[in-house]
Design a protein that fits this description.
Helices cover 47% and strands 16% of the residues. It is of the alpha/beta class. Helix 3 (115-138) packs antiparallel against helix 7 (228-261) and helix 24 crosses helix 28.
């Protein structure tokens, strides 16, 4: 008959436990002789995506650089963004100026690079000069003469009016006189003015005649005075026209000079025309502010400065929002704090008399405006943590413009009167960086995300460990040494660094792409070489750095091992026990990984075929661990009870475990414990086990194999290596082994062992020393094999359950008779 009997178990040699790097393969004696690295380590897929993303000009082709921390995402982004920006010209300056038609809507000026700052300075200078120019113009003889002529003309018209009234009054025998209340009349006789007492003494008829004449003259006065307001209005109009004419003549040369200076700037001409018209209209504002004295620092007329006291002359300033003067390439903006205001921009306010006031000079640019025409680099997690920032970024990218407003305005939460700056046209390439999980979450949760970020640059966390890869790593170390001014590294030290890069990724055929940790190791090795007085960093210095790293981080590991050594936590490393296996787990505390042995036990009794996971019953088992228990239960039932009931009740538990357990790496360990408990064959406690199991009994790969092996090794070494101790690892994990030199040396000396197993039958033979057994031609296992003992015990349980579940015949008949009798009665 066919058999699924696996091949013989393989005991690993020392050479298979650690892949050493050949120091002579790097082509240099020390890094001082090496060629520095001018390229990015690995990531060909990600770098190709970055190169494409930053170069393509179409909307929506923004980039998301995804990958774990430390793989060099930011370095690669900077490299490609700077390379792309070098081939693009600097974009226009962005300036806000006052809109004289709608003061709450500042106008945007897009000027050639560097022109904005010059225009602001020129406007500040011109505003100062306008005051002194107008003061001189209005103090000139020409103005004084023309203004005097207008005043004299008004006075003459008023004098002529009075003379006419005097003439009419003389014809009526009256005298016209100026009085505080206007013009008064008095009777005259023989050239002399008579007073009221004399008038009262006159005959009644003569008196009534005088009164009638005076009343008539008052009517003439009223008719005459009706002309005076018109004369005064005309006078003021002509004076204003004179003001405007003098102002135009005085300031004309100043603005003509500006117009000639900025003739090439299309938007400056209309703006200067509007400023000139407003200056002519409001010339008195200049004369009332010190008669042409320069404005105080930060006061009115300061171009772009946000002075403490807003005044009428601030409207002539220029707010240089973004200045690209002196820039030779497109801008690159890295915004470390992408809040809504820092991203979009903001309108600031000043306190004045208990209120907050603002104007266009208090508008501040955000990262989007500063990066327009170039590149904006943001960290996705920081962006998403800021309220409204992500939505504001999307809105800007969709509309291709930046509208500077408060979040309250954009979300219609407030309706106060404020500025509404003209939107800024946006032409920017955005590069987000973040973890893979964040990228996939955005893809799933936001339909707009993939339309706006069409290029994904996926950075791997590992690169192949081949000859070119190792040489590249050697050059990476050389580059870091030269860049940071470190001591030269000997080739043996470089080889040790490369081996650690392979160990960190947990694969002897790979190297970690998270080079930040490797760079830190290089710096630490340089430090310890300096402490030892070594002019060149050697392999021993790298080993010292690694050992010091462990010492700084392994307090908890040592405390847990101490609990085992003091037998507070029971874990045997000698002898044999039924239903007890040493399992291995990995703990991660602050980025420090270490292996921790755990005792796993199994107890069996007659039952209905269930395998109880005690951890799950008390809700300490994660879904992956529970899945592993169900898989091993399936294997057990399929192998030993495919066509008959499984009359077994088994209980599995991690002894002295007081926290949650997850992962399926202990499922093979639990299966070994269960097989031992059923068969009664004891398991060697000197061997620890790791590996998950399939429904077919195949031992599958797990993570953290190096830390698990070393964790059990350290416990055994602390108690004393006997030469009988070791670890069972999945055969699929052999390629991942990069064990410490202490383990390798112990294996080479025969004081510790590692076995690679691909099937539980292989593992149970090593653990028990008893053959697993395979089915013979009659379909049964050998009686003295583990499988034979398991099957025989299960058959016994089936028979016992059948016997106990069938009631005795006599008792059954008696019951029936008793029932019948009761019925008859």
């Amino acid at each position: 008959m066919t058999t699924d009997r696996p091949s013989a178990v393989h005991e690993l040699t020392a050479a298979e436990l650690h892949r050493a790097s050949d120091p002579d393969a790097y082509g240099f004696e020390t890094t001082a002789d090496a060629e520095p690295l001018d390229e990015i380590v690995g990531h060909p897929r990600a770098t190709a995506a970055l190169a494409f993303g930053v170069d393509v000009e179409h909307p929506g082709f923004n980039v998301f650089a995804l990958g774990p921390a430390g793989v060099g995402k930011h370095h690669a982004v900077r490299h490609f963004v700077h390379r792309a920006a070098a081939g693009k010209p600097a974009p226009p300056d962005l300036c806000y100026v006052h809109d004289f038609a709608e003061s709450h809507r500042p106008r945007l000026l897009r000027l050639s690079p560097g022109v904005g700052r010059r225009l602001a300075a020129d406007m500040e200078r011109v505003v100062r000069e306008i005051g002194s120019t107008l003061a001189a113009a209005f103090e000139s003889e020409e103005y004084q003469a023309r203004r005097g002529a207008l005043e004299e003309e008004l006075r003459e018209r008023q004098a002529a009016l009075f003379e006419e009234l005097q003439r009419q009054a003389g014809e009526r025998g009256l005298v016209a006189m100026r009085a505080p209340g206007g013009i008064a009349f008095a009777p005259r006789r023989e050239g002399e003015v008579i007073d009221r007492e004399q008038v009262m003494k006159l005959p009644d008829e003569e008196r009534r005649k005088i009164e009638a004449e005076m009343e008539a003259m008052q009517g003439e006065v009223e008719r005459a005075l009706r002309q005076v307001p018109g004369w005064q209005r005309e006078h003021r109009r002509r004076v204003m026209e004179l003001y405007e004419e003098i102002t135009r003549v005085a300031v004309g040369p100043l603005f003509e000079e500006l117009e000639r200076t900025y003739a090439d700037e299309e938007q400056v001409g209309p703006y200067l025309a509007a400023v000139r018209a407003d200056v002519v209209e409001h010339a008195r504002d200049f004369l009332q502010r010190g008669r042409g004295e320069p404005a105080a620092e930060g006061g009115d007329g300061s171009g772009g400065a946000a002075g403490p006291e807003p005044g009428p002359l601030r409207r002539y300033g220029v707010n240089v929002l973004v200045d690209h003067g002196g820039a030779e390439r497109a801008p690159i903006v890295h915004e470390d704090h992408p809040s809504y205001g820092n991203l979009v921009g903001r309108v600031e306010h000043l306190p004045r008399m208990g209120a907050l006031v603002t104007d266009f000079l208090l508008i501040k640019a955000g990262a989007l405006a500063r990066a327009s025409g170039g590149y904006l680099v943001l960290e996705a997690d920081k962006l998403l943590r800021q309220p409204f920032a992500y939505e504001a970024l999307k809105r800007a990218l969709v509309s291709r413009q930046v509208k500077i407003e408060s979040p309250g305005q954009s979300w219609s939460l407030i309706s106060t009167v404020t500025l509404e700056p003209e939107p800024i046209p946006l032409d920017v390439k955005v590069v987000l960086t973040g973890e893979r999980s964040l990228y996939y979450l955005l893809c799933a949760a936001d339909p707009e995300f993939t339309e706006l970020f069409k290029v994904a640059a996926d950075f791997s966390d590992q690169v192949p460990r081949d000859a070119p890869g190792e040489r590249t790593y050697g050059r990476l170390v050389a580059s870091l040494v030269q860049r940071d001014g470190l001591r030269p590294f000997h080739k043996t030290a470089v080889a040790r660094v490369v081996e650690e890069a392979s160990r960190r990724v947990g694969d002897s055929a790979k190297l970690t792409a998270q080079t930040s940790a490797i760079c830190d190791l290089v710096r630490e090795a340089d430090h310890w070489a300096g402490r030892a007085g070594h002019p060149v960093v050697g392999a021993a210095d790298v080993e010292r750095a690694l050992a010091e790293r462990v010492y700084r981080a392994n307090r908890v590991e040592e405390r847990l091992r101490e609990d085992v050594l003091r037998e507070t936590v029971r874990i045997d490393t000698t002898g044999a026990r039924v239903g007890t296996v040493n399992g291995l787990a990995v703990l991660d505390l602050g980025g420090y990984l270490f292996g921790r042995p755990s005792r796993i036990t199994a107890r069996v009794r007659m039952g209905n075929g269930e395998v109880v996971n005690i951890e799950r019953e008390v809700r300490l088992s994660g879904p992956l661990h529970s899945k592993g228990v169900l898989i091993l239960a399936s294997f057990l039932a399929a192998r030993y009870a495919a066509e008959r009931p499984l009359s077994l009740s088994a209980h599995l538990v991690f002894e002295q475990s007081y926290g949650g357990i997850d992962g399926d790496s202990a499922s093979s360990t639990e299966l070994y414990a269960l097989l031992s408990a059923i068969s009664g064959v004891p398991i060697r406690q000197s061997i620890a086990v790791t590996g998950s199991v399939s429904q077919h009994g195949e031992v599958q790969a797990i993570g953290g194999v190096n830390q698990k092996v070393e964790g059990f090794f350290e416990l055994c070494r602390a108690r004393g290596l006997t030469g009988d101790q070791g670890v069972l690892v999945p055969a699929a994990n052999v390629k991942h082994l990069m064990l410490s030199r202490d383990v390798v040396e112990a294996v080479a000396a025969g004081r510790f062992h590692l076995w690679a197993v691909g099937h539980v039958d292989q593992g149970i033979e090593v653990l028990t020393g008893v053959p697993a057994g395979e089915r013979g031609a009659d379909g049964t296992y050998p009686a003295d094999s583990v499988n034979g003992k398991v099957e025989r015990r299960l058959e016994e349980l089936i028979e016992k359950r059948r016997r106990y579940s069938r009631p005795p015949r006599e008792g059954r008949e008696g019951d029936e008779k008793g029932g019948d009798g009761g019925g008859k009665g």
